[in-house]
Amino acid sequence: MFDGVDTYSYDFTTDAGKAYGVNAQIEVAPGIFGMIPGDSFPDGFINETDKDPTWTSQAGKPGYLRSDLNLDGQAENTDKNDHWRSNIGKGICVPN
Fold it and tell me: How far apart are the first and last CA of the chain?
């Protein structure tokens, strides 16, 4: 949708197929879809590089850091355990 002020909006949340790429989203709540968290070293893959050095060096620090995967303002174990670990091996796809 174009609002006439060079701002666009698009609701990606209603279906996993609305995002670019295969398996680009996960169901974060019943019927609500969002980006796959865990790529804190932004290379398109969720793997060990996202934990070391990124998460390890930022753990325990406040702020919206790359390793703050749930965006609660703190890089902590829940980011690693609930978001990174559960998505290891997945990739994301962002168009050029």
Answer: 21
The pLDDT tens digits for 59-76 are 999 988 999 998 899 999
| Measured distance CA(21)–CA(32) in Å, rounded | 18
| Residue 78 CB partners (closer than 8 Å, separation 6+) | 70, 72
Check residue 34 and report its DSSP letter.
Answer: E
Segment 74-84, tens digit of pLDDT? 999 999 999 89
**Cis omega (within 30 of 0) for bond into 53:** yes
Structure tokens at 83: 């978001």
Structural contact between residues 28 and 34, judged by C-beta atoms closer than 8 angstroms: yes
